[in-house]
Amino acid sequence: MTSGAEALARLVVDVPDYPEPGVVFKDVTPLLADPAGLRAVVAALADAGRRDGEVVVDAVVGMEARGFLFGTPVALELGVGFVPVRKAGKLPRETHSRSYALEYGEATLQIHRDALAPGARVLLVDDVLATGGTVEATRELVTACGAEAVGVAVLMELSFLHGRARLGDLPLTALLTL
C-alpha cells in the first residue's frame, strides 16, 4: 500500500510562476485522479483526528477551496461532519469573518455562526501550510463559534515560509514538508 507522502511525491506537479511570477503552484489534480493515491492521502490526513485508534474530533473544517477536496473525505473517514470555511460573500446565512494576509495578497474567510456546536473539537484540513495566515484565521473562526481547533492536517508544509510558527501549540500533521 502506498503511503500518503509517497502518493504526494509521485502525483503532485509543480507549476512554476503560477498564479504569478515567483510562485510555484502545487497542482493536486493528478492526485485527485488517482484512486489509490487519494485513498492513501485521505487515510493519512484522517489519522490526525485519531488518538490510539479512536476518533477524537467532532467535526472537520476545510478551507476554500482545496481544503474542501480533502476535508470532506477525511470527515467521512472519521465518521464526523464537514464544515466549509468560505471566501467572503459565499455563505448564505449569518457568518463570522476574519481577514488575513496571504503570501501574495489578502483575503477574508467566513464560517456560518451556527456551523459548530459550542465545545466541539475540530480538525482543520487544507492542502498547503504556507505562511499560516489561512490556518490562523480559520482557528479564530472556529473559536468564534465556541468550538476548539485540536489539530491541523495538510498535504504539504512549505517550511521556508515559516507558517508553523503561527500555529502556536496547535498540533500539525504534514504529509510532506518542503
From TrEMBL:
Keywords (A to Z) from UniProt: Cytoplasm, Glycosyltransferase, Purine salvage, Transferase
GO molecular function ontology, one term from the record: glycosyltransferase activity
SUPFAM superfamilies: PRTase-like
One Pfam family recorded for the sequence: Pribosyltran
E.C. code: 2.4.2.7
Transferase found in the keyword field: yes
Location in or out of the cell: Cytoplasm
Pathway: Purine metabolism; AMP biosynthesis via salvage pathway; AMP from adenine: step 1/1
Source superkingdom: Bacteria
UniProt main location, coarse: cytoplasm
Gene3D superfamilies assigned: 3.40.50.2020
Subunit structure: Homodimer.
Membership in a protein family: Belongs to the purine/pyrimidine phosphoribosyltransferase family.
Functional note: Catalyzes a salvage reaction resulting in the formation of AMP, that is energically less costly than de novo synthesis.
UniProt name for this protein: Adenine phosphoribosyltransferase
Organism of origin: Nocardioides marinquilinus
